[in-house]
Amino acid sequence: MSHSPSMGRRQLLRAGGALGLAAAAAPLLTATAHAAAPSEARTTVTDLGPAIEQFALMSGILVGDTVYIGSRNLTPTRLIAFHLPTREVVARTDLGTGHSVQALAADADGRYLYAGVLTKADEGLPNLFRWDLRSPDRPAVAVGRTEDRDIRELAVAPDGTVYAVGGVPGKAPALWRYDPGTGLVARLGVPDPNATLARAVAATDTTVFFGAGSTLAGGGGASRASLYAYDRAKGTFTDVTPPELRRDPSLRELAVFGDRLVVTTAGSTEPAKLAVMDLADLSSYTVTATAGKTAKTLTTDGERIYFAGDAGLHAYTIATRSIAPVWNDAGDLGEVWGLDHLDGGLAVVSGYGFVAEIDTATGTSVVTDLGRAGAPVTPQTCMGIAADGRYVYVGGNNVIARHDLGAGEVLNLRAPGEAKDAEVLDGVLYTGQYSSQGMWTYDPATDAQPHRLAPFPSEQNRPLDLCFDAVNGLLLAGAQSDTEGGGSLWTYSLQNGSKAAYINPIDGVQLVRAVTTREGVAYLGGDNPTAQGPRGTLVAFDPVAGRELWRIDLPVATGVAALAVHGCHLYGLSRRGGLFVVDLRIRRVVHTADLRALCPGFAAMVTCRGWVYGVSDTTLFRVHPRTFAVTTVVAGIDGAWYSGPHVNTDGLGRLYTLRGHHLVRVDDRPVL
Q1: Which of 27-41, 173-187, 251-265 has the lowest mean pLDDT?
Q2: Which of 92, 107, 180, 320 is most exposed by smallest CB count within 10 Å?
Q3: How many C-beta atoms surround the C-beta of residue 402 within 10 A?
Q4: May I ask which residue range the UniProt record assigns to the signal sequence (predicted)?
């Protein structure tokens, strides 16, 4: 984001050709590691309260008449118990490690609930917990740790043995076993050395089924959907993947229903698949394409297999091998993280923070908001941010919080997935929505809730940076393809609704992590999440003709994290705190600096009041427009971001970002 998001299109057009700087033609300047001494400035920081408050969730499972739900991006991680007969939260336990609970599984008699957590970094702490449901007033206890860091799915065999799968960046996922008798966690092996993540596991008395693929860090030599059978007696793996599933990037879900193994995939260029396999003869199976790109959260009533995904709630009829939508009057269920069958109905755990009880015969439903039912409503970590003079919007998981600057009120808007980045133009909000949701929009004058503005290729699933090209009237978004590798530039015309997606505009491996614009030219900052191949390439791109104009390889060891334009200079930060300034007239880097002390990882940049501001996980700082000296504006800002920090401006010269879990407004008035 390089322009004030609330400025009208004519204002933005005038700003695009702002003054050139005398220092532009100077030889390359290199600065040392720490910031320059601060210039005179008046800086006011106003706390606007928690950025987003809700009970965010990432898993759900029915045990008896109670739905157990795991939190997402909350501190501490926790489990709650939602009692269906009373529709109240009747118990809770805090786990204390990691940021989210994606994996839940219960043993056969419903006594123990196992939970696996996701973490940002491996601190050597437990990631597997057990809650004794017969004594829910007692806290869950840590029972072990898998060295794959993240536990994405759990299964409990009939004899009580627990199996876990997940992953850690840069390493193929293993199958793990927890023996409740000995208390030991064992690594059973890596069946697919080219997989990047495992999200599916199921177990019988004799066999454990392991499902993996390339959900993250795809492309190159990463494998596609793979299914392995682990013989519990022999300790060996056998590849049993149906060939029809191998075209999809990843296996998504596994479940054992009677004498059948049910398998679903996550698709990208093709629809997700649902396979039903005979446990006695795994070569005997059927495969059916679904309506969406994801099929997950499996449950059954014996005649039908129910599942959810981006296309909504569906039922597969076993006898006819047909799939049909499940109608319900609850409306949009959002991202479904729990689905179970009970007494002729379905219990649905929605990422919107509610439980829906659906009567499958009539389609009628009862929806209970978990916060109102007693779930702890606390601040969550955040993503994109955008502002104008009236509202500030903060993106989170399945929610966009709208802060009314005048009334001081906060309204949680529903938006599926995650608003990774956002802009406000003429009072209207535009977002890039992960995963595979495209661009969304919300006009507070006419819309009750956000809605999709435009879809983009589903394999280009992760929009990362959004800005407005005032010259051409285009919204520009840089994106990443998690499953295929590389990335894209999206364009959307606010004048006529036309859109385009330019796949791999940098090269076959670099995603477009940052995009900014000047005088109708888009500047794309490349990054490469893999260990091999180029990174840190800057491409000047014509977003109307869809062609490259020129490129340079930047002097950075890691990829680009953020870009901004002021005058004839392009400012950028690498993912390890390398500042660079490019003179766009001569197409050359004219300044570099090592800002690792201020900017140890991901970062964001914005232009405000003639200065370029940057924010990292730790610090808000500014770059002098003539000398390129860097000054700390707010030290120790330590924003609670989930996928990298953000900063934006309201067009009145005020900055918005996070300090901890709180939204803050920063009015900074430096002296040139």
Answers
A1: 27-41
A2: 320
A3: 19
A4: 1-35
